[in-house]
Structures are given as C-alpha cells and as structure tokens.
Design brief:
With 326 residues, this protein is α/β, with parallel strands linked by helices. It folds into 5 domains: 6-36, no CATH class; 49-101, N-terminal domain of TfIIb (Single Sheet), CATH 2.20.25.90; 109-137, no CATH class; 140-174, no CATH class; 179-325, Dimethylsulfoxide Reductase, domain 2 (3-Layer(aba) Sandwich). It has 13 helices and 11 strands. The strands form 4 sheets. Strands 10-9-8-11 form a 4-stranded parallel sheet. The protein has a 3-stranded antiparallel sheet with strand order 1-2-3, with no helix packed on it. Strands 4-5 form a two-stranded antiparallel ribbon. The structure holds iron/sulfur cluster. The site of iron/sulfur cluster has 13 residues, from helix 4 and helix 9. Residues 56, 58-59, 61-63, 86, 90-91, 93-94, 217-218 line the site of iron/sulfur cluster.
C-alpha cells in the first residue's frame, strides 16, 4: 500500500468515487496543494507561522531580516536581533519591503527586447531557450545586475568569465563611488568605510543624512543614540549638521548650520584652513594649504559668519574623537 502522505490523504478524501476513476481530482488537487504546501519547502505546515532569517535588499546596508511566513505568504518583516549590522532594528524602507513583494505592478515575467524591437513579455522557458541558444552560439556576454556581494557576486563573475568576458556591471542608482574614491585617496583602500560613531565625541555631517538614508541608517541611528545619550559625566557629545535643508538628521543635531546647496564642501575646506592656520591640528597639513586656498577662491559662505566657522573648527579639532561625514 502506498504511503499515506498529506497530499494523498487530501486526494482520497477530497474526490468522489466517480471522480477517483479519472485523474481529474489529482489535477485539481495539484492546483490546490501548492497553496498550502509550497513545493520548495516541505517544512512549512499549513496554518503555522514560520520565521525565516534573510537579508534586506532595499538598500546596500544589508540589515538582517526575520520574515514571518504563513501558508506560503510572507506577512511581516522584522529586524534580526542577532544581526551585527542592525541588531534587531529596521528602517521604514525595510519594514515596507513587503509592499514591493506584493505590488500588483511588480514585473513578474521576463521582459525581452531584440535589436530595434519593442519590449515584449516572454515566459521563462522561452527566454531561457533564447539566452541558452545565444550563449551556445558563442555570443558576446555582458551581465548587468543590481549590487551583489559574496557568493552570488562570485557566481556572476565566474559565469561571465566562463564566456571569456569581464563585462560584469553592478548598478546602484544611488552609489557611494565618490566616498570610495575619497577613502582610497586618504587611506589607500577603495571601499565604503564603516564609521564607529558610537565612539565619537563630536560628529559633523556635511549633508550626510546618516539617520535616514546614508550608508547604513539603522546601524548609525543606534550608534548615534548611544553616542548622544547623557553619559553622566562632563560635557555631552555633540553632533552638528551642515546642509541646505532640515532633514531628519539635521533635526536631531545640536546645531544645524544652513548653507546653500553645494556649499557643504566649501564649509569643510574653510574649517580645514582654519585648523591649519591656527595650528589646532595634530598633523602638519601646511603642504595642502595652497590647494585649499585655490579651491576656496575668495568667496565667504553665505549666511555663515567667520566666528561660527572658527567655533566649529575648534570643536572639531579639540574633540578627543571627531568624525566628519560627507
Ligand atoms: S537600512 Fe533599511 S533599507 Fe537598508 S538594509 Fe537596513 S532595513 Fe533595509
């Protein structure tokens, strides 16, 4: 006698005697069963909640997610409390990632466009057949993807490499290339740095909205909360925001210095010049002073008096651990 699985049980109990003589009930059940027993995960039990640990891909920060899942449907995203990046927190974008998953306008088919043709919808079988045929015929390969890291990035690299191509491009709509280049120039490493805000006494942000969007907002918000909390000793740590608008990060600053868009860079240069001129720096930076002069030109910063610049420069230079975010 065949083993009585849940699927067989439903098949037997769900069909009438007459229907059992045909394969009609099985066809029906095969349509119904996957709704409660997703083929890809046999551990899911109908009606029972399950929790999956995964990674949020709404931004490059990669916070740890716990997804509540029932009957083949994800219903709630929460932060993974054991994850080193977010420690259980989740920003509004991560919380609302389910809206993207269930968006009726989400692209669910393969969109295909031949040379000079309009975009057409194709089934996966059809598209894979076309792609496979082109690869087999020795076509040139280029792979364009959203940002990937780790094993998947390696697989993509190997895939393009297997076809003798190095044309693999990860595209980020809001990337951090300028930050990477700045980091390479100063520290020799072309990577996006991770800042230890929690350990700082003084943070100055040049329009870097690190509490809402910049690099890793969940991690930085948690660190900022600790850094900015009353420590029960001496003066409190401070955060200054320099930028054109009162963002959420600016609204949380001790001091919001409003400058016209594009003047953040000049503010930083003025402060650096002042630190060099007053001898407040720990290192001798006089060799870069002519470059700073050239970049500054003659103009002052509209709406920012010199005393304010001096006060910020002194605070930055004299704090035990200060950091400038830009
Ligand atoms: S910061 Fe927000 S959007 Fe980015 S990975 Fe974390 S939860 Fe997702």
């Amino acid at each position: 006698m065949p083993k009585m699985t849940r699927r067989n049980f439903l098949w037997v109990t769900g069909g009438t005697g007459a229907a059992l003589a045909t394969d009609q009930p099985r066809k029906l059940i095969n349509k119904l069963i996957p709704q409660v027993v997703p083929a890809e995960n046999k551990n899911i039990k109908p009606g029972e909640w399950a929790l999956f640990a995964t990674t949020c891909r709404e931004c490059p920060a990669g916070c740890g997610l716990h997804l509540w899942h029932r009957d083949g449907r994800v219903t709630k995203a929460e932060g993974n409390p054991l994850h080193p990046v977010n420690g259980g927190g989740l920003c509004p974008r991560g919380q609302s990632s389910l809206q993207g998953l269930y968006d009726p306008d989400r692209v669910q088919e393969v969109l295909f466009r031949g040379k000079g043709a309009k975009v057409q919808k194709r089934s996966w079988d059809e598209a894979l057949g076309v792609i496979g045929g082109k690869l087999a015929a020795g076509g040139k390969v280029a792979l364009l993807s959203s940002l990937q890291t780790g094993a998947l990035a390696e697989v993509m690299k190997s895939f393009t490499g297997a076809f003798g191509s190095n044309r693999l491009l990860f595209y980020e709509p809001f990337n951090y290339e300028p930050l990477k280049i700045a980091h390479r120039e100063v520290f020799g490493l072309p990577s996006v740095p991770s800042y230890n805000i929690e350990q700082c006494n003084f943070v100055i942000s040049f329009a870097a909205d690190f509490l809402e969007t910049w690099i890793s907002p969940v991690s930085y918000a948690a660190q900022f909360a600790k850094m900015h909390a009353y420590q029960g000793r001496g003066a409190m740590n401070r955060m200054v925001y320099v930028g054109p608008r009162l963002s959420m990060t600016a609204a949380n600053a001790d001091d919001f210095v409003q400058v016209p868009p594009g003047y953040e860079r000049l503010m930083a240069l003025w402060m650096l010049k002042m630190i060099i001129d007053k001898g407040w720096g720990k290192n001798d930076l006089s060799s870069i002073r002519p470059d700073i002069e050239r970049a500054l030109g003659a103009g002052p910063i509209p709406g920012v008096p010199e005393e304010k610049l001096e006060q910020l420069a002194r605070s930055f230079a004299s704090a035990g651990a200060s950091v400038a975010l830009a």
